[in-house]
Amino acid sequence: MSLAIRPEITSSFRDDEEQAAAAVPLLAAASPTRSRSHAGDVHILSAAFLFVFSAYLPTQNLQSTLNDDGNLGAVSMGIVYVSFTGFAATAAVVVRGLGSRGALLLGTSGYALFILANLHPTWYTMVPASIYLGFASSIMWVGQGTYLTSAAFSHATENKLNDGQVLGRFNGEFWGMFASTQVIGNLISLVVLRNDKDGGGAEEKNLLFTVFLGCMVVGIVLMFLLSRRDESIGVEGGDHELPEKSLLWDMSKSAVAPLADRRMLLLAPLLAYYGLQKAFVWAVFTKSIVTPVLGVAGVGGAMALYGTSGVISSLVAGRLTTGLYSSTLIVSAGAVLQAGVLFWLLFFYSPVGGVLGSAAPLLVGAVWGVGDGILNTQLSALIGLLFKDKEAAFALGKMWQAAATAAVFFLSPGATLQGMLAAVAAALVVALTAFLSLSLVVERSYALKL
What we know:
transmembrane; UNC-93_regulatory; transmembrane helix; two-stranded antiparallel sheet; membrane; MFS_trans_sf
């Protein structure tokens, strides 16, 4: 039997890292008495993201088509992810200072501001909103990963369950709900823009973004209902009182520590591919494959189907996750599906009319969504299982993702469809090779401990 299927393998790495983490004087204040279960907090977190991203994701999907004057939409999205990449380096320190719940609340404000900017899209409104959204989203996503992982481990400890199974189940629920935002949000845009084939109607666009602002408000309210899981960092650390400068220095060092971890370096190509394949859908798939056949109004329908398949695959993958071995098999299956789509688009696809021509973009979106849902659940679970310093690991993971996403948004306006497809395919090969190497490294390291 492969050693990697043993659930102890991930606990062993957490135990090893605890000694190093103990030297970092971070405040770990006890949470106040809670009346809600850890699973209940995950339900609320998932629902909050459902409302926030039901508004944001379809807005992002439509940037390259609705705001195409001077490529304003594509450039704005590129700025978002460049800003995200820059701020991700310090996101772990910010999240530790604010607490994961505080980071979630502040992060949501960036998405609301970006929706507001789309009501009057100019370079003077979109660029500042994009820069702030990059900062806000970097801390929000680190806060999300830290909050969910904390809830999963607490639930597993209190109920004497396997960490990997609980983390997989919680991530499956969260990412299943998150994937459904592509269904709900894009169905909203499909209904509102149904009579706006070229995306030029100001009245329809304003109505759409007003509805999205309402969704944002509901999401923010739900964020306020989350239980507090950690307190803001102060100058006291447990039983020891430390100078504030010393504490912040130790926090900063621990935030970049995963850069020297071989596991993070081997996981980085898959994290980067995750961001790249998402940006490919948002910036290339919607503009170059869906719009020529189905029009701007059809983007909502295609992305809704993409989201539906992502919901199903997220829930199934989450339930099947038990540890590194299961994740390796699940990620490999998702990679094969996306490789098949890329191969078909590269060598066989050409836009045609009729029913079959209209069905092709929908089929591509559905299959691609399965692979995306798999990556959603598995990457979050892997970071939670393999790394003790959750904030730093999630921050670095998001940095790799954001850098790859930004590259696609900046390069796609001047690149051909075939060139983008070839680049994504090459990135997938590199990512899967590095990930399989990670599985072997972790298994070998565990074997040496026996």
